[in-house]
Specification:
445 residues, 17 helices, three-stranded antiparallel β-sheet, two-stranded antiparallel ribbon
Length: 445
């Protein structure tokens, strides 16, 4: 662009023509998006939100997620029909929709019930890296009696075929190589659950028309804006893309970790997902009302960022969708009913529970509640031989808080503590101690 101005000298000050030229130059090199375009992009964003909402609700209804639970009463007969036929670690995966330390704790507690493994709480270990529980694990049956994921776990924890190890032994043995029990069992355990009748998951198509259209259109408009503009990438454009990606990343993590596993509250599922999906839209569209870009053709860049935000919002809705088929979703609602039953019973002095059900309580994330009940109702520490100050024998099946059947750990520390201590002890300094596997069947963004 060529500017022709007549310049004249002004006494006692800067040239008037120079100042006017500078102002005109700045105005020519910057502009704000026209109002009609901003209204068009805003309406497009609202329309996209309604479309996503409709598609999301349609999908969730097909999975049974919004149907809620049945009104059946839970008792021992109901548990034997709907819960106990499934292995506790499979229940843990179905409930958590991921594989982590909870599944390790569940397997260890089941092995304790089956008298295959004895876990003893030896108290606090005043080590160099701080105080932590010290546990001893003792194998009570030959290795041939273990199979599947339990064999994988035992081979790693009771390394070199040992019959007994402590968490200090694990820390010393794996100080260099590391052993993460979650990583070792997650693939096999996930496959075992998928093979259960009716417990599969669907893989959502990662290709969405609106998401694909938004990304392609945003790229095309950005390219056109670069060709017609004196500045290829205005700094506001780069800021808009960056903050849109930040908002999308936050919404994506919350959608996968919080919204997708949620059950029972249809309104929270619906409005929570809508709020998370609208965040990228707000970041992508709202700032351009009245914001000038340092580019003479701002409409191209504004449209590009807005369409990018629409594509990101579509991804958030896709990530929040349940991957469960109808039968698996119904089973998860049954697990919710079982968990509520166990939780109510643990508030009683004489709960209608059995020690051999304890691994299911661990699987349903009630390990801490079990520990609290044991501390409030037990006067001594149990041993695997059944000694202790409880009125019921551990072998009788009556509820003793889990300690009688589990060789002492249940009465003094939760099984989640056992699993976290084992994971931390067997992890090298470089490998870390935690890990989990997402329960969703793919789909991506």
């Amino acid at each position: 662009m060529l500017l022709r101005l007549d310049l004249e000298h002004a006494e006692g000050g800067a040239g008037v023509g120079t100042r006017e030229a500078l102002l005109l130059s700045r105005k020519a090199s910057s502009s704000r998006a026209p109002d009609w375009l901003m209204w068009l992009l805003s309406v497009a964003g609202v329309a996209a939100l309604f479309f996503w909402e409709r598609d999301f609700l349609r999908h969730e209804r097909t999975t049974g997620r919004l149907d809620g639970r049945s009104n059946e009463d839970v008792d021992s007969q109901w548990l034997r029909k709907n819960l106990l036929p499934i292995r506790p670690e499979h229940v843990a995966v179905l409930w958590d929709e991921e594989i982590g330390e909870a599944e390790v704790a569940t397997i260890l507690s089941r092995l304790g019930v089956e008298k295959k493994l004895k876990v003893e709480d030896l108290g606090l270990d005043l080590g160099y890296f701080g105080d932590h529980h010290l546990f001893r694990m003792t194998r009570l049956v030959p290795l041939e009696n273990f199979s599947g994921v339990e064999r994988t776990l035992i081979d790693g924890l009771l390394f070199e075929g040992r019959e007994s190890v402590t968490t200090s032994d694990l820390r010393e043995h794996y100080s260099n190589s590391g052993f993460n029990p979650v990583f070792e069992i997650q693939d096999q355990l996930s496959l075992d659950v998928e093979r259960l009748p009716g417990m599969g998951q669907e893989t959502l198509a990662s290709v969405s028309f609106m998401r694909t259209f938004g990304l392609i259109s945003a790229s095309v408009l950005m390219a056109i804006g670069g060709m017609v503009s004196t500045r290829v990438l205005p700094h506001q454009f780069m800021g808009g893309i960056f903050f849109c990606l930040m908002a999308t990343s936050f919404s994506a993590v919350v959608s996968v970790q919080w919204i997708r596993p949620m059950l029972g509250d249809a309104q929270m599922i619906r409005f929570g997902t809508g709020f998370l999906a609208i965040l990228p839209l707000l970041v992508a569209i709202l700032p351009w009302w009245g914001w000038e870009l340092d580019s003479p053709r701002s409409e191209w860049f504004v449209s590009s960022v807005a369409l990018f935000g629409i594509a990101c919002g579509s991804s958030v809705y896709n990530l929040a969708k349940s991957r469960n088929v109808l039968s698996r979703m119904k089973k998860r609602y049954q697990l919710m009913q079982a968990r509520e039953f166990f939780e109510r019973e643990l508030q009683k002095d004489f709960p209608a529970l059995r020690d051999d059900w304890a691994p299911y309580l661990v699987a349903l994330d009630l390990s801490t509640e079990m520990e609290a009940w044991s501390k409030g109702h037990s006067t001594g520490r149990f041993s695997s031989s059944g000694s202790g100050n409880s009125g019921a024998s551990p072998d009788s099946g009556a509820w003793t808080g889990g300690g009688g059947a589990f060789g002492g750990a249940g009465a003094t520390a939760s099984w989640s503590t056992v699993a976290s201590t084992v994971s931390a002890s067997s992890a090298s300094a470089s490998s870390g101690g935690g890990g989990s596997s997402g329960g969703g069947g793919g789909g991506g963004w």
